[in-house]
Amino acid sequence: MSDIHTIPYKIYLEEHEMPKAWYNVRADMKNKPAPLLHPGTHQPMTAADLEPVFCKELVQQELDDVTPYIDIPQEIRDFYKMYRPSPLVRAYCLEEKLQTPAKIYYKFEGNNTSGSHKLNSAIAQAYYAKKQGLKGVTTETGAGQWGTALSMACAYLGLDCQVYMVKCSYEQKPFRREVMRTYGAQVTPSPSNTTEVGRKILAEHPGTSGSLGCAISEAVEAAANQEGYRYVLGSVLNQVLLHQSIIGLETKAALDKYNITPDVIIGCAGGGSNLGGLISPFVGEILRGEKQYRIIAVEPASCPSLTRGKYAYDFCDTGMVTPLAKMYTLGSNFIPSASHAGGLRYHGMSSTVSQLYHDGFLEAVSVEQTKVFEAATYFAKVEGILPAPESSHAIRVAMDEAIQCRETGEEKTIVFGLTGTGYFDMVAYQRFNDGEMTDRIPTDEELAASLAQLPKVD
Amino acid sequence: MSDIHTIPYKIYLEEHEMPKAWYNVRADMKNKPAPLLHPGTHQPMTAADLEPVFCKELVQQELDDVTPYIDIPQEIRDFYKMYRPSPLVRAYCLEEKLQTPAKIYYKFEGNNTSGSHKLNSAIAQAYYAKKQGLKGVTTETGAGQWGTALSMACAYLGLDCQVYMVKCSYEQKPFRREVMRTYGAQVTPSPSNTTEVGRKILAEHPGTSGSLGCAISEAVEAAANQEGYRYVLGSVLNQVLLHQSIIGLETKAALDKYNITPDVIIGCAGGGSNLGGLISPFVGEILRGEKQYRIIAVEPASCPSLTRGKYAYDFCDTGMVTPLAKMYTLGSNFIPSASHAGGLRYHGMSSTVSQLYHDGFLEAVSVEQTKVFEAATYFAKVEGILPAPESSHAIRVAMDEAIQCRETGEEKTIVFGLTGTGYFDMVAYQRFNDGEMTDRIPTDEELAASLAQLPKVD
Q1: Total beta-carbon pairs less than 8 A apart between chain A and chain B
Q2: Sign (positive/negative) of CA torsion A232, A238, A239, A243?
């Protein structure tokens, strides 16, 4: 390595080069994501149906599938400037250690206290809640990254924040809870006795370690039962992908600045927020017939919605209180094993990502967590960043692609999303370091059983 | 706030603007820091005396008080590029919330997995050890930041790394230990039974929570007893301040780029590595008669070496196995209370910083940890970064300065060092959030007792 790299280790946009509008990929989709359906009537949800649960302006964003660019309010752009632009990093060290001719880049979203990309949508949702004059918001969190991000955004704007945290994460990550508390949030392990749906789930599954689906049910109920509160969600929804498009827009601007065209774009996929945001502007180019890219969604083998799920209408939560979304799903009553990538333990997948996958614009692969942690540990030593388990799914596949290039001699340009850091995931690393990590993959029978209970929609 | 800031929220140097040489402030000091003395003969330590303990090239750097600039080897500069340049952040949000006319900047060193500035010297020391053909290095760590940084550097270069971690930090921060393990280091709580000096300290102070001074003794002994090992230290030494000058050089380059002249420069002070590095180039200007700045060292009231210590020769460690350094000290057998700023729990202060303080080039203040955590929590909410307890000492005093400006109307430019993040300090935050944090300040009698045991040097 030397000083004469024409491309720096880290590409930072200038402040004035930061995106001033989010990109709404749905506007360029010929096959629009299917609408949310009312769980009772099975009719498309209207703004009036959604507004008791979500903030008004966010409902508009949720339903808008025609406007390609939506301005980012100045206040949100100012907040973004505290921790953005995030760097697009050229992984020179990783390339060298892997002895690959591939060029590897990663968009690193972990350099903020929430530890992930989640802050991009948290500040947007909190901003619109504040603008509407609300007192506070409720939400769920899996790995704790979304809850932390929302706590930070709410503290900044002076909003109350109530977080239902998936029980296995709550127990594995006491310090995540403490970060949220430091930011003034109220954190409850889910399922809990504080909601009707929580009590029901506990009665049916005593000793459950919880899931994102359960926690969503509880947070929705909590919002409905409090005056001046609305529910906010860190993934899955169209609005979240819209906000997260900042990741892809910055990535594309940074690549364009140096005339770099990626061959492969890789992101981890749980609910689809990071993946959807990262790939949006690139998929837009594909949809408009301007470019071709290979796009890979990486999901955990323990919760394989794209690779083993069914494309169907399903509830977004375990308690079946939410609208129905058409998505790749494992069934809303599927409870994944207590893997360490809490942020990927979701039974479904964003409707937008699902539609794009269904239409062949992206591939999907699933990987086992022990392989993921091998990649994470390797990456930490070589690139100096200890990655989140979720992000490490993308690292695993990016490394596999680069290793393949070593064998074929191809000089592919690989871009992947490094969504966050693993500083609050040390229990997982400890288990891996001690050789105690296992892989638990659902059997075909288990999946068939949970899929058999999908709601019937004509 | 608006888009028309002429100064961005974050000033990043371009890669080609990064310093290519470290700055050695001793070259510009008329009164040089007093030399290390041999603990037996009380004669100045020679290179030959030091080389059994330290790497050769580092010994040269330790003793060199005449060369103003020392080239940074290309390999170290390449490593720096993975996580540097670090941003100089304009604290627009903090200024607004404090309603101060002051302009506040902070140099943020926490955006790397070690969580602090320590990596700047860790990679340098590991590099020279590797170059010398050594097998490994031993060291101590307080808060765990230095140990983590050294583990990262050693993993990168393929060196063995043995860390003695101050027992109270080891217990408060199991996850720090796990990060070090992930990077392949061997971590032992100190005092331990693995060394003679450790066994002696345990016998004399059963149940002690340890200190940096104890851990140093053990690490030095461990290096001496293993073929192909040397001892490395994360603070106090001249060589460390030299490496850490990168902080100040980048800060000054970023300020110069926008024609900003600071009035006040503030840093926390434990052993002096961050403070010394941050202020070096500014002090250089003062020493050469080019500029004037007010410089403030902030130390914990529980371990107040500058404000309540004595300027005298003392051992660098508790076990009295190291050379004697002339410094502001509380006595090498002083064991500070188990405060949460583990990185500041050191009885002495870098000889260079001590000499500068003695000659009136800087001021010093001490602050109590409850006041520090008030500032830390406020800063986290406003600026979106959860700071390390150590760094928060500087935040406290920077905020106090800014609040004073609000009262006087002065538009001072305040620069402080934000050395790291508090992600592994959540036990401390929890105690603060629960209202259980206390301040334990040594009595005059306690200090007199430990100072009475200073070695007698003519």
Answers
A1: 134
A2: positive
